[in-house]
Amino acid sequence: MYTVSKSKQVDEQITALPVEALAAFHEVTVFLQVAPWSGNPFVRERPDAPMRTQTFGDGGSGMVTYLIIEYRRLVEIIHVAWYG
Questions:
Q1: pLDDT confidence of 61, banded at 50, 70, 90?
Q2: Which end of the chain is more exposed for a tag (fewer CB within 10 A), N or C?
Q3: Under a CB-based contact definition with an 8 Å cutoff, are residues 76 and 31 in contact?
């Protein structure tokens, strides 16, 4: 199991999400605790890199960008975006 961490800036991005996105975002954070390597690589040419992305919401309207720090079993959320 991984610990999920986020900065104050990311907290502000989460606060700005629409109400309909909150449940899906919560599901993503649970996913990150158990299977963060299942996300998509941030740079397609580096599929083993620890920087990853995961979409969420209806039709993938939201995206979380995160960094996996394996030796600490930590996932640091770097950015949350909503395109819906």
A1: very high
A2: N
A3: no
Q: How many alpha carbons fall within 13 Å on the CB side of residue 32?
A: 30
For residue 6, count other CB atoms closer than 10 A to its CB: 18
User: What pTM did the predictor assign?
Assistant: 0.94
Of 46, 40, 33, 41, nearest in space to 73 by CA: 33
Pairing of strands 74-82, 51-56: unpaired
Return the SS3 of 46: coil
Compute the average pLDDT of residues 12-37.
96
Task: Give the mean pLDDT of 57-75.
Answer: 96
Expressed in percent and rounded to 5, the helix, strand and coil fractions of the chain are: 40, 35, 25
The 3-state DSSP class for residue 2 equals coil
pLDDT value at residue 84:
76
